[in-house]
Amino acid sequence: MEKYNATDLLHNKKIAIVGGGPGGLTLARLLQLKGGNVQVYERDINKEARVQGAIVDLHFDSGLKVMEVADLMDAFKANYMPGADKFRMVDQNGKIYLDEHDNLDNAGFGNEHFRPEIDRGALRNVLINALLPGTVIWDSQFANMVQVNNAWELQFKNGTTATADIVIGSDGYRSKIRHYVTDIKALYSGATIIQGEIEHPEKACPEIYKLVGNANLIAMGTGKTIAAQPRGDGGLTFYGTSLYPENWITTSGIKFNNNDEVIAYLVDFYEGWDPLFFTLFKACTRFTPRPLNYFPLDKNWDTKPNITLIGDAAHLMPPSGEGVNTAMLDALDLCECLTSGKFKDIEEAIAAYEEQMRARAIILLQESLDGIKDFASPSDESIRKLMHQFNPNGN
Ligand SMILES: Cc1cc2nc3c(=O)[nH]c(=O)nc-3n(C[C@H](O)[C@H](O)[C@H](O)COP(=O)(O)OP(=O)(O)OC[C@H]3O[C@@H](n4cnc5c(N)ncnc54)[C@H](O)[C@@H]3O)c2cc1C
Fold this sequence. Notes:
Elements: E1 14-18, H1 22-33, E2 37-41, E3 55-57, H2 63-69, H3 73-79, E4 87-91, E5 96-99, E6 117-119, H4 120-129, E7 136-137, E8 142-148, E9 151-156, E10 161-164, E11 166-169, E12 187-198, H5 201-204, H6 206-212, E13 216-221, E14 224-230, E15 236-243, H7 248-251, H8 259-269, H9 275-282, E16 286-294, E17 307-309, H10 312-315, H11 323-339, H12 346-376, H13 380-390
Parallel strand pairs: 1-2, 1-11, 2-7, 4-13, 11-17
Antiparallel strand pairs: 3-6, 4-5, 8-9, 9-10, 12-15, 12-16, 13-14, 14-15
Helix pairs in contact: 1-4, 1-11, 2-11, 11-12
Bound molecules: flavin-adenine dinucleotide.
Residues 18-24, 41-44, 56, 140-142, 170-173, 176, 193, 195, 239, 290, 311-313, 319, 321-325, 327 line the site of flavin-adenine dinucleotide (FAD).
Protein backbone atom coordinates (compact mmCIF):
# COMPACT_ATOMS: atom_id res chain seq x y z
CA MET A 1 0.00 0.00 0.00
CA GLU A 2 1.41 3.39 -1.03
CA LYS A 3 1.76 5.68 2.01
CA TYR A 4 3.92 8.39 0.48
CA ASN A 5 4.11 9.84 -3.00
CA ALA A 6 5.94 7.16 -5.03
CA THR A 7 7.99 9.66 -6.98
CA ASP A 8 9.10 11.69 -3.95
CA LEU A 9 12.06 9.63 -2.70
CA LEU A 10 14.01 9.94 -5.93
CA HIS A 11 12.85 13.44 -6.84
CA ASN A 12 15.90 15.55 -7.75
CA LYS A 13 18.19 12.71 -6.67
CA LYS A 14 21.20 11.62 -8.71
CA ILE A 15 21.89 7.90 -8.55
CA ALA A 16 25.35 6.48 -9.32
CA ILE A 17 25.45 2.77 -10.12
CA VAL A 18 29.04 1.57 -10.02
CA GLY A 19 29.52 -1.49 -12.26
CA GLY A 20 27.70 -2.27 -15.50
CA GLY A 21 27.22 -6.02 -15.11
CA PRO A 22 23.80 -7.70 -15.27
CA GLY A 23 22.84 -6.34 -11.83
CA GLY A 24 23.82 -2.70 -12.40
CA LEU A 25 22.41 -2.45 -15.93
CA THR A 26 19.12 -4.06 -14.92
CA LEU A 27 18.79 -1.62 -12.04
CA ALA A 28 19.51 1.32 -14.37
CA ARG A 29 16.81 0.15 -16.79
CA LEU A 30 14.21 -0.39 -14.04
CA LEU A 31 14.93 2.97 -12.41
CA GLN A 32 14.75 4.79 -15.75
CA LEU A 33 11.34 3.23 -16.37
CA LYS A 34 10.30 4.95 -13.12
CA GLY A 35 11.85 8.27 -14.15
CA GLY A 36 15.04 7.92 -12.04
CA ASN A 37 18.12 10.02 -12.82
CA VAL A 38 20.78 7.34 -13.22
CA GLN A 39 24.37 6.99 -14.42
CA VAL A 40 26.24 3.72 -14.64
CA TYR A 41 30.01 3.99 -14.13
CA GLU A 42 31.75 1.03 -15.77
CA ARG A 43 35.43 0.11 -15.68
CA ASP A 44 35.55 -1.36 -19.22
CA ILE A 45 36.86 1.20 -21.69
CA ASN A 46 33.91 0.62 -24.03
CA LYS A 47 31.12 -1.79 -24.86
CA GLU A 48 33.39 -4.05 -26.91
CA ALA A 49 36.28 -4.06 -24.41
CA ARG A 50 36.19 -7.73 -23.47
CA VAL A 51 34.38 -10.97 -24.13
CA GLN A 52 31.81 -11.25 -21.37
CA GLY A 53 32.15 -15.02 -20.90
CA ALA A 54 29.95 -17.95 -21.83
CA ILE A 55 26.21 -18.39 -21.55
CA VAL A 56 23.85 -17.86 -18.61
CA ASP A 57 20.38 -19.27 -18.16
CA LEU A 58 17.60 -17.05 -16.88
CA HIS A 59 14.98 -18.57 -14.60
CA PHE A 60 11.20 -18.24 -14.62
CA ASP A 61 10.82 -16.72 -11.15
CA SER A 62 13.92 -14.51 -11.22
CA GLY A 63 15.82 -13.44 -14.37
CA LEU A 64 12.90 -13.92 -16.77
CA LYS A 65 10.46 -12.30 -14.36
CA VAL A 66 12.73 -9.24 -14.15
CA MET A 67 13.07 -9.09 -17.95
CA GLU A 68 9.24 -9.01 -18.14
CA VAL A 69 9.05 -6.11 -15.67
CA ALA A 70 11.84 -4.35 -17.57
CA ASP A 71 9.76 -4.77 -20.76
CA LEU A 72 12.65 -6.58 -22.43
CA MET A 73 11.21 -10.02 -23.17
CA ASP A 74 10.96 -9.39 -26.91
CA ALA A 75 14.62 -8.34 -27.02
CA PHE A 76 15.56 -11.37 -24.90
CA LYS A 77 13.65 -13.73 -27.22
CA ALA A 78 15.43 -12.23 -30.23
CA ASN A 79 18.83 -12.93 -28.65
CA TYR A 80 18.65 -16.13 -26.59
CA MET A 81 20.23 -19.38 -27.80
CA PRO A 82 17.49 -21.96 -28.46
CA GLY A 83 18.57 -25.46 -27.39
CA ALA A 84 21.58 -24.28 -25.39
CA ASP A 85 19.76 -25.10 -22.13
CA LYS A 86 20.14 -28.83 -22.78
CA PHE A 87 22.61 -30.92 -20.77
CA ARG A 88 24.81 -33.82 -21.69
CA MET A 89 26.53 -35.61 -18.85
CA VAL A 90 29.45 -37.96 -19.43
CA ASP A 91 31.96 -39.83 -17.32
CA GLN A 92 35.75 -39.52 -17.58
CA ASN A 93 35.76 -41.99 -20.47
CA GLY A 94 33.37 -39.81 -22.42
CA LYS A 95 30.50 -42.30 -21.95
CA ILE A 96 27.17 -40.50 -22.05
CA TYR A 97 24.98 -41.00 -18.97
CA LEU A 98 22.44 -38.30 -19.49
CA ASP A 99 21.54 -36.75 -22.82
CA GLU A 100 18.88 -34.09 -23.12
CA HIS A 101 19.81 -33.19 -26.67
CA ASP A 102 17.11 -35.34 -28.23
CA ASN A 103 14.66 -34.49 -25.51
CA LEU A 104 11.96 -32.68 -27.46
CA ASP A 105 10.01 -31.54 -24.42
CA ASN A 106 7.53 -28.76 -24.79
CA ALA A 107 9.15 -26.48 -22.25
CA GLY A 108 9.20 -22.96 -23.58
CA PHE A 109 8.55 -19.41 -22.47
CA GLY A 110 5.83 -19.40 -19.82
CA ASN A 111 6.83 -22.84 -18.51
CA GLU A 112 8.38 -22.56 -15.05
CA HIS A 113 11.00 -25.21 -15.87
CA PHE A 114 12.25 -23.47 -19.01
CA ARG A 115 15.67 -21.88 -18.44
CA PRO A 116 16.72 -20.32 -21.74
CA GLU A 117 20.42 -19.57 -22.15
CA ILE A 118 21.81 -16.33 -23.52
CA ASP A 119 25.35 -15.26 -24.25
CA ARG A 120 26.51 -12.85 -21.53
CA GLY A 121 27.55 -10.27 -24.14
CA ALA A 122 24.13 -10.46 -25.81
CA LEU A 123 22.38 -10.01 -22.45
CA ARG A 124 24.57 -7.01 -21.72
CA ASN A 125 23.73 -5.50 -25.13
CA VAL A 126 20.00 -6.04 -24.61
CA LEU A 127 20.21 -4.14 -21.32
CA ILE A 128 22.49 -1.36 -22.61
CA ASN A 129 20.38 -0.79 -25.72
CA ALA A 130 17.35 -0.21 -23.50
CA LEU A 131 19.01 2.62 -21.56
CA LEU A 132 18.76 6.31 -22.38
CA PRO A 133 21.74 7.43 -24.49
CA GLY A 134 24.79 8.33 -22.39
CA THR A 135 23.63 6.40 -19.30
CA VAL A 136 26.76 4.24 -19.17
CA ILE A 137 29.97 6.18 -18.62
CA TRP A 138 32.68 3.84 -19.90
CA ASP A 139 36.30 3.85 -18.75
CA SER A 140 35.20 4.82 -15.23
CA GLN A 141 37.05 2.54 -12.88
CA PHE A 142 35.92 3.58 -9.44
CA ALA A 143 38.84 4.43 -7.14
CA ASN A 144 37.36 6.03 -4.02
CA MET A 145 34.73 8.47 -2.77
CA VAL A 146 34.11 10.96 -0.02
CA GLN A 147 30.92 12.18 1.54
CA VAL A 148 30.24 15.88 1.00
CA ASN A 149 27.21 17.01 3.01
CA ASN A 150 24.58 14.38 2.18
CA ALA A 151 26.04 13.42 -1.19
CA TRP A 152 28.99 11.39 -2.45
CA GLU A 153 31.85 12.63 -4.58
CA LEU A 154 33.22 9.72 -6.59
CA GLN A 155 36.70 9.60 -8.04
CA PHE A 156 37.72 7.37 -10.92
CA LYS A 157 41.09 5.99 -11.84
CA ASN A 158 41.20 8.08 -15.03
CA GLY A 159 41.04 11.30 -12.97
CA THR A 160 37.38 12.12 -13.57
CA THR A 161 34.90 12.74 -10.75
CA ALA A 162 31.14 12.62 -10.31
CA THR A 163 28.64 13.45 -7.58
CA ALA A 164 25.62 11.45 -6.55
CA ASP A 165 22.96 11.47 -3.83
CA ILE A 166 22.71 7.67 -3.80
CA VAL A 167 25.46 5.16 -4.64
CA ILE A 168 24.73 1.55 -5.59
CA GLY A 169 27.68 -0.86 -5.66
CA SER A 170 27.14 -3.42 -8.41
CA ASP A 171 30.83 -3.85 -9.11
CA GLY A 172 31.00 -7.59 -8.65
CA TYR A 173 33.08 -9.93 -6.54
CA ARG A 174 36.02 -7.60 -5.97
CA SER A 175 33.74 -4.66 -5.17
CA LYS A 176 35.46 -1.44 -4.19
CA ILE A 177 32.14 0.03 -3.03
CA ARG A 178 31.56 -2.80 -0.57
CA HIS A 179 34.14 -1.47 1.81
CA TYR A 180 32.06 1.73 2.32
CA VAL A 181 29.17 -0.47 3.51
CA THR A 182 30.80 -3.30 5.44
CA ASP A 183 34.20 -4.71 6.34
CA ILE A 184 32.99 -8.34 6.20
CA LYS A 185 35.57 -10.08 4.01
CA ALA A 186 35.31 -12.95 1.52
CA LEU A 187 36.15 -16.52 2.56
CA TYR A 188 37.42 -19.35 0.36
CA SER A 189 34.89 -22.10 -0.47
CA GLY A 190 37.54 -24.80 -1.00
CA ALA A 191 36.96 -25.07 -4.76
CA THR A 192 38.92 -23.49 -7.60
CA ILE A 193 38.09 -23.32 -11.30
CA ILE A 194 40.62 -23.25 -14.11
CA GLN A 195 38.71 -21.57 -16.93
CA GLY A 196 39.85 -21.97 -20.53
CA GLU A 197 38.76 -20.20 -23.71
CA ILE A 198 38.81 -21.84 -27.14
CA GLU A 199 38.43 -19.94 -30.39
CA HIS A 200 37.12 -21.83 -33.46
CA PRO A 201 36.49 -25.07 -31.52
CA GLU A 202 34.98 -26.69 -34.62
CA LYS A 203 38.53 -26.77 -36.04
CA ALA A 204 40.64 -26.75 -32.86
CA CYS A 205 38.91 -29.68 -31.06
CA PRO A 206 36.16 -30.98 -33.38
CA GLU A 207 35.32 -34.17 -31.49
CA ILE A 208 34.63 -32.57 -28.16
CA TYR A 209 32.96 -29.62 -29.88
CA LYS A 210 30.49 -32.14 -31.31
CA LEU A 211 29.97 -33.67 -27.87
CA VAL A 212 29.23 -30.24 -26.37
CA GLY A 213 26.72 -29.82 -29.19
CA ASN A 214 26.10 -26.11 -28.61
CA ALA A 215 24.75 -26.79 -25.10
CA ASN A 216 26.05 -27.76 -21.64
CA LEU A 217 28.52 -30.62 -21.26
CA ILE A 218 29.42 -31.88 -17.80
CA ALA A 219 32.08 -34.54 -17.39
CA MET A 220 32.53 -35.97 -13.92
CA GLY A 221 35.16 -38.28 -12.53
CA THR A 222 35.94 -38.98 -8.89
CA GLY A 223 37.29 -35.77 -7.35
CA LYS A 224 37.15 -33.51 -10.42
CA THR A 225 34.77 -32.10 -13.00
CA ILE A 226 34.95 -30.49 -16.41
CA ALA A 227 32.11 -28.33 -17.72
CA ALA A 228 32.03 -26.86 -21.22
CA GLN A 229 29.65 -24.35 -22.75
CA PRO A 230 29.39 -22.54 -26.08
CA ARG A 231 29.89 -18.78 -26.30
CA GLY A 232 27.59 -16.68 -28.44
CA ASP A 233 30.52 -15.74 -30.71
CA GLY A 234 31.17 -19.38 -31.70
CA GLY A 235 33.93 -19.96 -29.13
CA LEU A 236 33.87 -22.47 -26.31
CA THR A 237 34.51 -21.97 -22.58
CA PHE A 238 35.47 -24.79 -20.25
CA TYR A 239 35.77 -24.95 -16.49
CA GLY A 240 38.02 -27.55 -14.84
CA THR A 241 36.95 -27.60 -11.19
CA SER A 242 38.30 -29.39 -8.13
CA LEU A 243 39.05 -28.83 -4.45
CA TYR A 244 42.38 -27.10 -3.82
CA PRO A 245 44.00 -25.55 -0.75
CA GLU A 246 43.50 -21.83 -0.21
CA ASN A 247 45.98 -19.71 -2.21
CA TRP A 248 46.82 -22.73 -4.39
CA ILE A 249 46.99 -20.46 -7.43
CA THR A 250 50.10 -18.78 -6.06
CA THR A 251 51.55 -21.71 -4.14
CA SER A 252 51.21 -24.12 -7.11
CA GLY A 253 53.97 -22.26 -8.94
CA ILE A 254 52.02 -22.57 -12.21
CA LYS A 255 52.25 -19.51 -14.43
CA PHE A 256 48.67 -19.24 -15.63
CA ASN A 257 49.63 -16.88 -18.44
CA ASN A 258 51.86 -19.61 -19.89
CA ASN A 259 49.48 -21.88 -21.83
CA ASP A 260 51.96 -24.75 -22.18
CA GLU A 261 52.46 -24.88 -18.41
CA VAL A 262 48.73 -24.95 -17.70
CA ILE A 263 48.08 -27.58 -20.39
CA ALA A 264 50.85 -29.79 -18.97
CA TYR A 265 49.35 -29.42 -15.49
CA LEU A 266 45.83 -30.29 -16.70
CA VAL A 267 46.95 -33.33 -18.71
CA ASP A 268 48.72 -34.57 -15.61
CA PHE A 269 45.85 -33.77 -13.22
CA TYR A 270 43.28 -35.49 -15.45
CA GLU A 271 45.45 -38.55 -15.98
CA GLY A 272 43.33 -41.59 -16.77
CA TRP A 273 40.60 -39.51 -18.47
CA ASP A 274 39.86 -40.07 -22.12
CA PRO A 275 42.40 -38.20 -24.34
CA LEU A 276 39.35 -36.47 -25.86
CA PHE A 277 39.47 -34.08 -22.90
CA PHE A 278 43.15 -33.34 -23.49
CA THR A 279 42.23 -32.02 -26.95
CA LEU A 280 40.06 -29.50 -25.13
CA PHE A 281 42.95 -28.32 -22.96
CA LYS A 282 45.36 -28.20 -25.88
CA ALA A 283 42.97 -26.06 -27.94
CA CYS A 284 42.79 -23.36 -25.25
CA THR A 285 44.25 -19.97 -26.06
CA ARG A 286 43.68 -18.35 -22.65
CA PHE A 287 43.39 -19.68 -19.09
CA THR A 288 42.04 -17.93 -15.99
CA PRO A 289 42.28 -19.45 -12.53
CA ARG A 290 39.29 -18.64 -10.30
CA PRO A 291 39.32 -19.48 -6.60
CA LEU A 292 35.65 -19.60 -5.60
CA ASN A 293 35.07 -17.26 -2.68
CA TYR A 294 31.97 -16.19 -0.83
CA PHE A 295 30.82 -13.49 1.56
CA PRO A 296 29.57 -14.99 4.84
CA LEU A 297 25.98 -13.91 5.43
CA ASP A 298 25.66 -14.90 9.07
CA LYS A 299 27.06 -11.46 9.91
CA ASN A 300 25.14 -8.35 9.12
CA TRP A 301 25.85 -4.67 8.46
CA ASP A 302 23.90 -1.61 9.55
CA THR A 303 21.97 0.01 6.73
CA LYS A 304 23.56 3.25 5.53
CA PRO A 305 21.43 6.27 4.56
CA ASN A 306 22.36 6.54 0.87
CA ILE A 307 24.51 3.62 -0.25
CA THR A 308 23.89 -0.09 -0.77
CA LEU A 309 25.05 -3.16 -2.72
CA ILE A 310 23.48 -5.54 -5.23
CA GLY A 311 24.58 -8.76 -6.92
CA ASP A 312 27.98 -10.30 -6.26
CA ALA A 313 29.13 -7.14 -4.47
CA ALA A 314 26.50 -7.88 -1.82
CA HIS A 315 26.54 -11.67 -1.67
CA LEU A 316 29.28 -13.35 -3.65
CA MET A 317 28.83 -17.13 -3.65
CA PRO A 318 30.20 -20.09 -5.62
CA PRO A 319 28.47 -20.48 -9.01
CA SER A 320 25.23 -22.44 -8.82
CA GLY A 321 23.42 -21.03 -11.83
CA GLU A 322 21.78 -18.33 -9.70
CA GLY A 323 24.26 -15.41 -9.64
CA VAL A 324 22.97 -13.40 -12.60
CA ASN A 325 19.37 -14.24 -11.75
CA THR A 326 19.82 -13.10 -8.16
CA ALA A 327 21.61 -9.90 -9.16
CA MET A 328 18.62 -9.09 -11.38
CA LEU A 329 16.16 -9.84 -8.55
CA ASP A 330 18.17 -7.54 -6.26
CA ALA A 331 17.81 -4.82 -8.89
CA LEU A 332 14.05 -5.36 -9.02
CA ASP A 333 13.63 -5.37 -5.23
CA LEU A 334 15.78 -2.27 -4.76
CA CYS A 335 13.97 -0.37 -7.50
CA GLU A 336 10.59 -1.32 -6.02
CA CYS A 337 11.63 -0.26 -2.51
CA LEU A 338 12.94 3.09 -3.77
CA THR A 339 9.86 3.86 -5.88
CA SER A 340 6.94 2.13 -4.13
CA GLY A 341 5.92 5.02 -1.93
CA LYS A 342 5.89 2.67 1.08
CA PHE A 343 8.90 4.19 2.84
CA LYS A 344 9.40 7.57 4.43
CA ASP A 345 13.01 8.03 3.33
CA ILE A 346 15.80 6.43 1.31
CA GLU A 347 17.39 4.78 4.33
CA GLU A 348 14.13 3.03 5.22
CA ALA A 349 13.74 1.88 1.59
CA ILE A 350 17.32 0.56 1.52
CA ALA A 351 16.77 -1.25 4.84
CA ALA A 352 13.70 -3.01 3.43
CA TYR A 353 15.59 -3.97 0.28
CA GLU A 354 18.58 -5.29 2.24
CA GLU A 355 16.33 -7.46 4.38
CA GLN A 356 14.77 -9.11 1.31
CA MET A 357 18.12 -9.43 -0.44
CA ARG A 358 19.79 -11.03 2.59
CA ALA A 359 16.93 -13.47 3.27
CA ARG A 360 17.15 -14.73 -0.32
CA ALA A 361 20.95 -14.79 -0.48
CA ILE A 362 21.44 -16.72 2.75
CA ILE A 363 19.45 -19.68 1.36
CA LEU A 364 21.23 -19.59 -2.00
CA LEU A 365 24.62 -19.30 -0.34
CA GLN A 366 24.08 -22.44 1.74
CA GLU A 367 22.87 -24.34 -1.33
CA SER A 368 25.81 -23.17 -3.40
CA LEU A 369 28.37 -24.07 -0.70
CA ASP A 370 26.87 -27.56 -0.38
CA GLY A 371 26.58 -27.89 -4.17
CA ILE A 372 30.06 -26.74 -5.10
CA LYS A 373 31.75 -29.46 -3.04
CA ASP A 374 29.77 -32.15 -4.85
CA PHE A 375 30.35 -30.49 -8.20
CA ALA A 376 34.06 -29.86 -7.77
CA SER A 377 34.90 -33.15 -6.14
CA PRO A 378 32.16 -35.67 -6.86
CA SER A 379 32.16 -39.11 -5.32
CA ASP A 380 30.66 -42.03 -7.20
CA GLU A 381 27.63 -41.63 -4.97
CA SER A 382 27.19 -37.91 -5.75
CA ILE A 383 27.51 -38.58 -9.49
CA ARG A 384 24.66 -41.07 -9.17
CA LYS A 385 22.65 -38.54 -7.14
CA LEU A 386 23.11 -35.87 -9.78
CA MET A 387 22.02 -38.20 -12.56
CA HIS A 388 18.94 -39.02 -10.54
CA GLN A 389 18.23 -35.32 -10.06
CA PHE A 390 18.25 -34.76 -13.81
CA ASN A 391 16.51 -37.99 -14.63
CA PRO A 392 14.43 -39.12 -11.64
CA ASN A 393 12.72 -41.95 -13.54
CA GLY A 394 16.08 -43.39 -14.53
CA ASN A 395 15.04 -43.69 -18.18
C1 LIG B 1 32.79 -19.63 -13.66
C2 LIG B 1 31.49 -18.96 -13.35
C3 LIG B 1 30.32 -19.41 -13.94
C4 LIG B 1 29.09 -18.80 -13.63
N1 LIG B 1 27.95 -19.25 -14.23
C5 LIG B 1 26.77 -18.68 -13.94
C6 LIG B 1 25.55 -19.12 -14.55
O1 LIG B 1 25.54 -20.04 -15.37
N2 LIG B 1 24.39 -18.50 -14.22
C7 LIG B 1 24.35 -17.46 -13.33
O2 LIG B 1 23.25 -16.93 -13.06
N3 LIG B 1 25.47 -17.02 -12.74
C8 LIG B 1 26.66 -17.59 -13.01
N4 LIG B 1 27.81 -17.15 -12.40
C9 LIG B 1 27.72 -16.04 -11.43
C10 LIG B 1 27.56 -14.72 -12.16
O3 LIG B 1 28.57 -14.55 -13.13
C11 LIG B 1 27.59 -13.54 -11.19
O4 LIG B 1 26.87 -13.85 -10.03
C12 LIG B 1 26.99 -12.30 -11.85
O5 LIG B 1 27.74 -11.95 -13.00
C13 LIG B 1 26.94 -11.15 -10.88
O6 LIG B 1 26.47 -10.01 -11.54
P1 LIG B 1 26.87 -8.56 -11.01
O7 LIG B 1 26.20 -7.60 -11.92
O8 LIG B 1 26.61 -8.48 -9.55
O9 LIG B 1 28.45 -8.50 -11.13
P2 LIG B 1 29.42 -8.70 -12.39
O10 LIG B 1 28.80 -9.53 -13.44
O11 LIG B 1 30.72 -9.15 -11.82
O12 LIG B 1 29.59 -7.24 -12.98
C14 LIG B 1 30.36 -6.27 -12.31
C15 LIG B 1 30.68 -5.15 -13.28
O13 LIG B 1 31.36 -4.13 -12.54
C16 LIG B 1 32.49 -3.70 -13.27
N5 LIG B 1 33.48 -3.22 -12.28
C17 LIG B 1 34.24 -3.96 -11.44
N6 LIG B 1 35.01 -3.17 -10.68
C18 LIG B 1 34.72 -1.90 -11.04
C19 LIG B 1 35.18 -0.63 -10.60
N7 LIG B 1 36.12 -0.49 -9.64
N8 LIG B 1 34.67 0.48 -11.18
C20 LIG B 1 33.72 0.39 -12.15
N9 LIG B 1 33.26 -0.80 -12.63
C21 LIG B 1 33.73 -1.92 -12.05
C22 LIG B 1 32.94 -4.93 -14.05
O14 LIG B 1 33.72 -4.58 -15.18
C23 LIG B 1 31.60 -5.55 -14.42
O15 LIG B 1 31.08 -5.05 -15.64
C24 LIG B 1 29.04 -17.74 -12.70
C25 LIG B 1 30.24 -17.27 -12.11
C26 LIG B 1 31.44 -17.89 -12.42
C27 LIG B 1 32.71 -17.40 -11.75
